[in-house]
Amino acid sequence: MRKVVITGLGAITPLGIGVRRTWTRLLASSSGIVSIGARSPQFAVLPSQVAGIVPEGARADGGWNAKEWLRAGDERKMAKFAQYAMVASEEALADAGWSPTAEEDLMATGVYIGSGIGSLDDVYDTTLAYDRGGYRKVSPLFVPRLLINLAAGHISMRYGFKGPNHATTTACTTGAHSIGDAARFISFGDADVMVAGGAESCIHPLAIAGFARARSLATAWNDAPQLASRPFDRERAGFVIGEGAGVVVLEELEHAKARGARIYAELTGYGLSSDAHHMTAPREDGQGPFLAMKRALKHAGLKPAQVDYVNAHATSTPLGDAAENRAIKDLLLGENGKAKASEINVSSTKGAIGHMLGAAGSVEAIFTILALHHNSLPPTLNLDNPGDPADDFNCNYVPHTPQDCRVDVALSNSFGFGGTNASLCFSRFK
């Protein structure tokens, strides 16, 4: 199959707008998690009152102001998750230097952008409006703003891309699935270039209430929001909801070389699996994540010993972090693997940005690519005491501050409700 490389990156995260700002702040051990209790009385009564919010403010300061980032009419036509996807795509395409005008190039470029939940605000607000005033209170833009595939649709229309126009919604695995599936479009010859990733914006009382009722969220750190997301830490007690978007430009290798594009990394492997176990809880033995990572390495033709870094899904939940830790060690230790656990480099960037749901996998894939590109391991914030000794947390989890490390092969993991798992394998381009 044809080889796939990454030539462009774009991101909107709780650490700011843009990949450079986000990466710089991540390596500075900054946190984008803030208190949301004062936003409204509805937020104030929730058991979890912290979230990873895209910072508002002037564009020049790396903040979000829709009127500065979007074209006239975009804010009305697009739900916020689609707005984030559009801006992240603009950055990724500019970074890749890909702005085709020839019909042949437009037909060979596609878009694959997903979201886990989409526009909950539109559903909630329109439901209330319909209940109060009936049919005429429903906006003609309600359905187009609601549909998850409209993020990809708007991007395709904006740039005239006529290749595959696709979307996925696989809960918190969405971003990783989008990138992996899009890469396969290129591998099988359906496109030469794909704009791929995930976007999410559902910091809404209803969403938080739902996750809280499912006992998924951190509730003990409302007075200290920056401490709430604690992947792999003994005091971890739930995830922190986040928002944003991550988009990459994927390109067929020879196509990228022919136009002299900068290549960040090669996407060499993509593995998928299902827990087949429970709606929201992973198997304790980590079999699903283990299979996804094993299949990604098989696809890449690599051995466990060659993995230099794993960007973990680790959301800061007691069961999830322990299961993934077990899966990583089961895969990377032993025959064809590392000699000891301390040689395994693992970190979770959710300590800084929270869990961005459908955008998590794509944003974390970008962090993984940058770790490889810059030979720098991003830190796991708030990791004061690795998990319970019984869970055998004895890898290098990159606590608090980044670490310099040669990275030639890296895995990026994403798992979601319904037991869906994906792992992306990135390798240094040589």
Binned, the helix content reads 25-40%
Tell me the number of helical segments per DSSP (H or I, 4 or more residues long).
16
Which structural class do the helices and strands define?
alpha/beta
As residue ranges, the low-confidence spans are none
- Assign the CATH class of the largest domain: Alpha Beta
Radius of gyration, in Å, reads 20 Å
Subunit arrangement of the protein: single chain
CATH topology of the largest domain: Peroxisomal Thiolase, Chain A, domain 1
Write out the CATH superfamily name of the largest domain: Thiolase/Chalcone synthase
Shape: globular
Give the DSSP E fraction (strand runs of 2 or more residues): 15-25%
Nearest-integer average pLDDT: 97
Strand segment count = 15
Measured distance between first and last alpha carbons: 18 Å
Structural notes for this entry:
GO terms for molecular function: 3-oxoacyl-[acyl-carrier-protein] synthase activity. Belongs to the thiolase-like superfamily. Beta-ketoacyl-ACP synthases family. It comes from Mytilinidion resinicola. One of its GO terms (biological process) is fatty acid biosynthetic process. The protein has helices spanning about 20-25, 40-45, 65-70, 75, 80-95, 105, 120-135, 140-145, 150-160, 175-185, 205-215, 255-260, 285-300, 320-330, 350-355, 360-375, and strands at about 5-15, 15, 35, 50, 110-115, 165, 195-200, 245-250, 265-275, 310, 345, 375, 405, 410-415, 420-425. The protein is an alpha/beta fold. Strands 1, 2, 5, 6, 7, 8, 9, 10, 11, 14 and 15 form an 11-stranded mixed sheet that branches. The chain has a two-stranded antiparallel ribbon with strand order 3-4. It has a two-stranded antiparallel sheet with strand order 12-13. The two termini are about 20 Å apart. The protein folds into 2 domains: about 5-260, Peroxisomal Thiolase, Chain A, domain 1, CATH 3.40.47; about 270-425, Thiolase/Chalcone synthase (Peroxisomal Thiolase, Chain A, domain 1). It is globular and about 65 Å long.
